[in-house]
Amino acid sequence: xxxxxxxxxxxxAAGILVAGLRRLEYRGYDSSGLATVDAGRLHIxxxxxxxxxxxxxxxxxxxxxxxxxxxxxxxxxxxxxxxNAHPHLGGRLGTAGLALVHNGVIENHASLRRELEAEGFVxxxxxxxxxxxxxxxxxxxxxxxxxxxxxxxxxMLEGTYGLGVVSQAHPGLVVGxxxxxxxxxxxxxxxxxxxxxxxxxxxxxxxxxxxxxxxxVQLTPGxxxxxxxxxxxxxxxxxxxxxxxxLAELGHHAHYMIKEIREQPMTLVDACRGRLSRRxxxxxxxxxxxxxxxxxxxxxxxxxxxxxSAHAALVGEYLIERIAHLPVEVEYASEFRxxxxxxxxxxxxxxxxQSGETADALGALREANRRxxxxxxxxxxxxxxxxxxxxxxxxxxxxxxxxxxxxKAFAAQVAVLALLALYLGRLRHLSFSDGLDIVDALxxxxxxxxxxxxxxxxxxxxxxxxxxxxxxxxxxxxxxxPVALEGALKLTEISYIPAHGYPTAEMKHGPxxxxxxxxxxxxxxxxxxxxxxxxxxxEEVRARGxxxxxxxTEGDRVLPGLSNTFLPIPDAPEILLPLxxxxxxxxxxxxxxxxxxxxxxxxxxLAKSVTxx
Length: 613
Ligand code: F6R
Description:
This protein has 613 residues and is an alpha/beta fold. Helices cover 36% and strands 22% of the residues. The chain has 20 helices and 27 strands.
């Protein structure tokens, strides 16, 4: 949510900054801007709209300089406009010589604004961020040193921030600061970068320093200096990025979303690689950093996440309860962090997050840690804040997910939760042969997903019907209830058609009121223990003239006759059904949005990685 890129070195900054913003654009994309410093002058360029608008502007009005900062925005305070776009200038009228970009939210901005206005500072934007620029400019008047000025201002701010600052009086210097919003330094030769996400620095260097909360950094082409707000100077800890930046290129696919949907067979291979043991009929999850002895004492599991990650957690609830016979609770992270949920030493808390930066998920992790409860993470982004702050966990290894609608991360989360269920089960009652069945099932998953993807041509015609729908109901039972929720979320977020997911049998307790020709019902009805009960629910919808789309097992002789459209998935062990049934639903959302001409990878109002509360 919002992206920051900064650069100082010997190359022209503007091109590097814009290329970096393009890599981060999926995080926030309503406006963008940059500031460069050249021969004691600041050049500011900003535009509402996508990064390409900024790029066009820079073609017409180049911004020289080999040092600068830039930003792509997801609006929190004030609508998307040229003036609300970052960077913001700091300084008294006519003397503004400082530019700032900010990710996060400043909660006490209104009182700070009043204070600054009373002193004669004039505000150009409606943002909370502009107060920080003026506060630093005011501190700079006194200290004359940008690094010190930023340090003086930070204690005045309540809320979260990732900051980048440049000043015309300090050519070649970029100052950054972090509290609750990620920042990483790219360590180059004779140049340094600052970014909110390692993806922006990866094309330039593999060496990075992840800043911690409370740290402030000053970068010049030849030097990195870090200080902690309370603890003083900090030696830079250099990490290596071990993934390749080109992996996230679009290739021949029309959108990242469809690319990532089609990648899911490989996602399963990567999530399970080296983690399945046929010899012991179990999973190997060394990253949990917990001994089998400790794990055997666990009596309850809490899974915490937001959005799609919460839906994957719900699948995990069914899997862990079924395979390991442990009670599981799933909580929205935003609720968990403010609830006084009872936790004891026999409870294991997992935070699930693709990005590893979601503010609510991070808040939940910190709340559990604060209460002295060791918390684990199931995360995709290596080196992300949640990954670093958790006491242990499991990486998804799904590669970078760029499409705002999460798809392959869901598959990887479900796979990892199945591995966890297997591991916990085998530490308890699960027999060798039952364990081996699960190993076999997981090993067969990539091939089955490949098969399931063949449904795409039929999905395209179903999308014609969905595109004109007033509302869509998604219905699934047992392990497929969370998949129904996920299907509804996917459709809503990228096509803007209202969709609702329910456990199938709940339909008659209310949602059935929506059933008519213009409000299709998508039933998840593959062959499983509750198959015949689902058929009865389908009949109830048909009896009311409803439009029925079904996801069922290939070769089913009954379902096609009950459906306006039948979407087949391959026959598979029950624990794999969520991974297979979600495929037609992801494709249905994609093709419906495509028909409606939606901006699929960057749906309105959304952003990847929600780093504000
Ligand atoms: C939906 C979607 C969101 C995210 C949610 C959590 O397609 O992408 O609902 O799942 O914002 O994000 P992470 O998993 O990064 O914490």
